[in-house]
Specification:
By secondary structure, the protein is mainly α. 79% of the residues lie in helices and 0% in strands.
Amino acid sequence: MDPITLLIVCPLVFLAGFVDAIAGGGGLISLPAYLLAGLPAHMALGTNKLSNAIGTSVATLRMARAGYIKLPLAVPAVIGALVGSAFGAKLALLTPEGVFQMLLVVALPVVAILVLRKRDLDNGGIAEAAPTPKLLVIIGICAIVTGLYDGFYGPGAGTFMLLSFVTFAKLRVREASGTMKMCNLASNISALVMFLNAGAVYIALGLIAAAFNVAGNYIGAGLVVKNGSKIVRPLIVVVLCALFAKMLFDLIA
């Protein structure tokens, strides 16, 4: 691990945490950061899961203390995410490195557009005092599908989880946010275990990057800016364009 790698990864992972706390979509920056530093695609995915798992743990703890997490809703989400993410990570590890690199280059702009077009999610849903079996099944299915994506690729997974819980399970944004954090944490841990077992995690770099990710999340969460997402999203676009151009150049070269 040379200083150049740290100089590339750490500031971008800090920025990813900062952006994620304000507007979401930080994974769109953190994963390409590892690729930009020269890590192979599978190693970049595994190392990104390590730093994300730690950062997500901190965010989940904050939401739990604030009372946003309802266990009856979180249990099927966690189970579904564990299963879906394990399969997604296994599929990623079975995908040849060259093919996976091309998939990442194609997926990055598509996911970026979907995440950046996210609108306000207030659907006026009603929180249920006692969740019905049907609701729990819907939450579990949503978690399996989004967990599969998170294990295979990852960026934007939190946004997709939140959208699925609001759209299909009809949860209020508060309950959906807490359920999403538990689901996202479970999917990160499940995928991380798979990548660790395959030796595809740069542990030292991931731990250092995690500290910067947590710092970025902490500062971003404490920054109260009116229309914060409108300020941050152009920043995401600029950074993504630079990262995408570099990834595309490396692929062609």
